[in-house]
Model the fold of this input.
Amino acid sequence: MSKVLVIVSTSEYSKALLGVLWATAALKEKWVSDVELVFFGPIEEKIAEGDEKLLEAIDDFKKLGKKPIACERVARANNYLDKLADKIDVGPVGELIGEYIGKGYVPLVF
Done:
């Protein structure tokens, strides 16, 4: 069965939310054997701002035993690292994405 790396990078709120909801449903419904979730780009600002619906969707993903991560470098460059780190794990995701692909995860980008 496939493993999927969901990368949420868009600035479009509805697409970003769809990515998180898909990741959660894929795990719950066992559409794939594993899903990892990475935030890498403009949508991180909405998370940092505390968007309720997006944070709720992320929490639902976390309840499945997963730890999504957001890009520390993007957050630092845009001056919202502290706010973001209060809501989600942050770290360097560039190399992490490469590692997941090397492990056979198929990237699905929203």
